[in-house]
UniProtKB/TrEMBL annotation, chain A:
GO biological process terms held by the UniProt record: ATP synthesis coupled electron transport
GO molecular function: NADH dehydrogenase (ubiquinone) activity
Protein name, per record: Monovalent cation/H+ antiporter subunit D
An annotated GO cellular component: plasma membrane
Compartments in which it is found: Cell membrane; Membrane
Location (main, coarse): membrane
Keywords: Cell membrane, Membrane, Transmembrane, Transmembrane helix
Taxonomy of the source species: Bacteria, Pseudomonadati, Pseudomonadota, Alphaproteobacteria, Rhodobacterales
Membrane topology: Multi-pass membrane protein
Keyword Cell inner membrane tagged: no
Listed transmembrane segments: 6-23, 32-50, 70-96, 162-185, 205-230, 242-264, 279-297, 304-324, 330-349, 370-389, 409-427, 467-491
From TrEMBL, chain B:
Membrane topology (UniProt): Multi-pass membrane protein
Protein name, entry field: Na+/H+ antiporter subunit C
Keyword Cytoplasm assigned: no
Family designation: Belongs to the CPA3 antiporters (TC 2.A.63) subunit C family.
Taxonomic lineage: Bacteria, Pseudomonadati, Pseudomonadota, Alphaproteobacteria, Rhodobacterales
Entry keywords, A to Z: Cell membrane, Membrane, Transmembrane, Transmembrane helix
Keyword Membrane appears in the UniProt entry: yes
InterPro entries (alphabetical): CPA3_antiporter_subunitC, NUOK/Mnh_C1-like
Length: 514, 116
């Protein structure tokens, strides 16, 4: 039994209290430890993904209690990929927040950041439904701290809304788990899969209630339409880098839907086959529509980013809700793209807000407006799903997966029409912020004497690190496009592994027999 | 006993939902607490209700036993909801002190100068 699987949880869990207790008054040391820890986290994630990419399913029994009695951590292709994605995102966000001094504006940014990583990694790796709840709480309580980092009346009130909404979600999660436990008598996911499949066909009312309650909970996390109200307010008022980190949080919801509704309530199962997809698909299409229309209507660049994040989640959930191996492969490719693109657009929104305030209005040229506008242009292309970046490829894959299904016309028209809407919305915001100047604005006379000291002051004040982080994310998006072939192969292999749940159940429950 | 526990869960949930839908933070926090009590009792009942039985399997007779797992789950849920309630009270207090209003929504009080 390799102990590597538990390291992404243990490493931040040790690092965070260490930073809190030993180096709490030394921000420089905290930064060093945080960056080093996140890099180590990235290294572990790469090793885990390499292990998982062979197609084997690795099981780690906590305390050596065998499943279903003990809690297990399970590493398969999907969880390995998600942990790797978390690590890449975390490193970029961390560099950005150090470069912009966001971590100076409140207390304990770095410990909270590490606890957040611990919760996210745990949620991706666990093989136990109640443990999933516990890791949800770990990542949420860290996110509450990060959300109100830096304070301010508006942020605190938005944070309060966010906390209340998520506490309600947690309560609902417990109700769902209780219902499922009452029917099956287990909470281990692999064991659940076997017991749910063995339930008598005429006695499934209660487990169906449990399945739908659970879907509601994950939909709250994934910001699916009627439950998305928490997202724009809280993401737009959260500190920029934190909102970028939260790009992975909606994906935790999407991951949980993928995991539970392929493994436990699989598409082959009579009791749930017509249940989840039929509810999720219309909701996902509406999410896509509302998110993209939202980008047209906002007057605030952080909210623009938040609404484009909702739209991106909509596309992802359309792919998930088809529950076919082809569509799931597309969804897995898109989940990576969507996380990176969402994080990028939140970082750029933060750069703009820091320089000229949140409103999308014509302004005087801001510092480094050239670089930022290039970044915004790239992020907008990625979010709207235009060629040549990975958003376009992801969208094509989703469209391909929807071809020859009964809902083809609906899915194609919604995705294509609202891609156009997103393009208009993002282009409008981009031209307003970066091209237009207020009426009557005179560009200053270029005089060499006056400019140079100003530039020197500027470059001393504005660090290069934020741009390193943002261009790092761009590089990842470009890599996703250039290496789309291998990426898609991995995504399709992951989807196959998800839909063939037999090896997963064998690996967890019949470890000794192997 | 089943009817008693079921109606207790129902009443707690109903009151909790009603209070959560209020517009000020204090009733909302009370509602969240009531909901967490409701879910704790509900979780407790998911292991079936039996009286005066040990939470241990007996190998000498097929006597009934209390399912110990929901008790462990409830314990976890109590700890988590306790911590979360403390946190939400602190955030609510911070929001109230910094903006002089305890309304839950963020839009209806532009006069309170919350542009910080």
């Amino acid at each position: 039994m390799s102990h590597l699987i538990i390291l992404p949880i243990v490493l931040p869990a040790i690092l965070a209290p260490f930073m809190l207790m030993v180096v709490r008054h030394h921000l420089d040391l905290q930064r060093i430890f945080s960056v080093a820890g996140t890099m180590a986290f990235l290294g572990i994630a790469i090793a885990l993904t390499a292990q998982a990419s062979t197609g084997d399913i690795h099981v780690y029994e906590l305390g050596n209690w065998s499943a279903p009695f003990g809690i297990v951590l399970v590493l398969d292709r999907l969880s390995g990929l998600m942990v790797l994605l978390t690590a890449i995102l975390a490193l970029a966000v961390l560099l950005y927040s150090i470069g912009t001094d966001w971590d100076k504006r409140g207390h304990h940014f770095h410990p909270l950041f590490q606890f957040q990583l611990m919760g996210v990694a745990g949620a991706f790796l666990t093989g136990d439904a109640f443990n999933l709840f516990v890791f949800f709480e770990v990542l949420l309580i860290a996110s509450y701290g990060l959300m109100i980092h830096g304070g301010g009346a508006k942020r605190l009130r938005a944070g309060l809304q966010y906390v209340v909404y998520n506490l309600l979600g947690s309560t609902l999660f417990l109700f769902a788990l209780g219902t499922i436990y009452a029917v099956t008598g287990t909470l281990n996911m692999a064991d659940l899969a076997e017991r749910v499949a063995a339930l008598p066909a005429d006695d499934t009312a209660l487990i169906r209630v449990g399945a739908i309650l659970l879907l509601l909970v994950f939909s709250i996390k994934a910001a699916v339409l009627p439950l998305h109200f928490w997202l724009p307010g809280s993401y737009a008022n959260a500190p920029g880098p934190v909102a970028a980190l939260f790009a992975i949080m909606t994906k935790v919801g999407a991951y949980s839907i993928l995991r539970m509704y392929t493994l436990v309530f699989g598409p082959d199962l009579a009791l749930s086959s017509s249940l989840v997809g039929e509810w999720l698909l219309p909701a996902a299409l509406l999410t896509l529509a509302v998110g993209m229309i939202g980008t047209l209507g906002t007057r605030d660049i952080s909210r623009l980013a938040a609404f484009s994040a909702i739209g991106s989640m909509g596309t992802l959930l359309v792919a998930i809700s088809m529950f076919t191996p082809l569509a799931t492969g597309a969804a897995i490719y898109y989940i990576v793209h969507s996380t990176l693109a969402t994080a990028l657009i939140f970082l750029i929104a933060d750069m703009v807000v820091e320089r000229q305030g949140p409103a999308i209005t014509p302004t005087v040229p801001m510092a480094q407006s050239g670089l930022i506008s290039v970044l915004f242009f790239i992020a907008a292309i990625a979010m709207a799903g235009m060629p040549p970046l990975s958003g376009f490829l992801g969208k094509i894959m989703v469209l391909q997966a929807a071809a020859n299904t009964p809902q083809q016309t609906l899915i194609w028209s919604v995705i294509l029409v609202f891609s156009l809407v997103a393009m208009v919305g993002l282009a409008r915001a981009g031209t307003m912020v970066f091209w237009k100047t207020p009426d009557g604005y005179e560009p200053p006379e270029p005089s060499d004497d006056a400019d140079e000291p100003e530039d020197a002051v500027l470059s001393a004040r504005v660090s290069r690190l934020p741009f390193v982080a943002a261009f790092g994310l761009v590089a990842m998006l470009v890599a996703m496009t250039i290496f789309a072939g291998p990426a898609l192969t991995y995504a399709e292999a992951t989807a196959e592994q998800l839909f063939d749940s037999e090896p997963y159940r064998d690996a967890v429950l019949r470890k000794d027999a192997q | 006993m089943e009817a008693l526990v079921a109606s207790a869960v129902a009443v707690l949930t109903a009151c909790g939902v009603y209070l959560v839908l209020r517009r000020r933070t204090f009733p909302v926090i009370l509602g969240l607490s009531l909901l967490s009590y409701a879910v704790n009792v509900f979780l407790f009942a998911t292991g079936r209700l039996v009286q005066n039985m040990p939470p241990i399997l007996s190998k000498y007779a097929d006597a009934t036993y209390t399912d110990p797992l929901p008790q462990a789950l409830v314990l976890t849920a109590i700890v988590i909801s306790f911590g979360m309630t403390a946190l939400v009270v602190m955030i609510a207090l911070g929001a109230f002190l910094s903006s002089d209003t305890d309304r839950i929504n963020t839009t209806d009080t532009p006069e309170s100068g919350d542009n910080a």
